């Protein structure tokens, strides 16, 4: 007779949720990273160097001496010219994006300094309807380019976008012409423009202002292109090469000038600007 008997219990799997405010999981290698350590490492994975997506405020703090010192056109907001209705009404989706992001559009523009050099600055917010370029995004990009021209300040634009905002129809496509024309005037007057491409930069943004920089810099591993790889494969009925449309592939084929890890972005841009305005 057994005097001591331990009741056997079946082991059940328990899914542990990672507290989002304490830990982060790398999408590339699966490493679990303490968020404070991640922030200290410029939001790049210390194990595989994967670049986490960061927002406009983070890029402003990363690249400018004291962040964005003045914001331009913060109250501009899009309308719904087509009364567009898809899976959800465009007007409803737009208002939801405003509530979620605390800003009225998918780009933030303003002025700041890089190593005490005055610059005009624009940065896109992928979290706002996929960083899509509608009429107001194009208007704000054009206006910040005009300010850079008027004050002869170098212009830096950080792109992150899924492309044109087709809920606004042809008005969204017209922004490619508007932004390109404004940057053309900047180029004609020899005012420097540096374009920084982050993950992802696609569609109409790639087909316009993102690829018109005097110097085009890309973050490592960023997806950059017009149409997506799947669409291209289906169109040409061929298998695409490994790494197609990633920063390193584009650098190898002459589509971008530099691939620069995030910790080195500010000193690299500063050195370029000193050379360009010197």
UniProtKB/TrEMBL annotation:
Its cofactor is Zn(2+). Its main location: cytoplasm. Zn(2+) binds at residues 26, 29, 45, 48. It is an enzyme of class 2 (transferase). Its EC number is 2.1.3.15. GO terms for cellular component: acetyl-CoA carboxylase complex. Residues 22-278 form the CoA carboxyltransferase N-terminal domain. It is found in: Cytoplasm. A zinc finger (C4-type) spans 26-48. Binds 1 zinc ion per subunit. InterPro entries: AcCoA_carboxyl_beta, Acetyl_CoA_COase_Trfase_b_su, ClpP/crotonase-like_dom_sf, COA_CT_N, Znf-ACC. One of its GO terms (molecular function) is acetyl-CoA carboxylase activity. Pfam families: Carboxyl_trans, Zn_ribbon_ACC. Gene3D superfamilies: 2-enoyl-CoA Hydratase, Chain A, domain 1 (3.90.226.10). Belongs to the AccD/PCCB family. Acetyl-CoA carboxylase is a heterohexamer composed of biotin carboxyl carrier protein (AccB), biotin carboxylase (AccC) and two subunits each of ACCase subunit alpha (AccA) and ACCase subunit beta (AccD). HAMAP family: AcetylCoA_CT_beta. Component of the acetyl coenzyme A carboxylase (ACC) complex. Biotin carboxylase (BC) catalyzes the carboxylation of biotin on its carrier protein (BCCP) and then the CO(2) group is transferred by the transcarboxylase to acetyl-CoA to form malonyl-CoA. This is Acetyl-coenzyme A carboxylase carboxyl transferase subunit beta. The gene is accD.
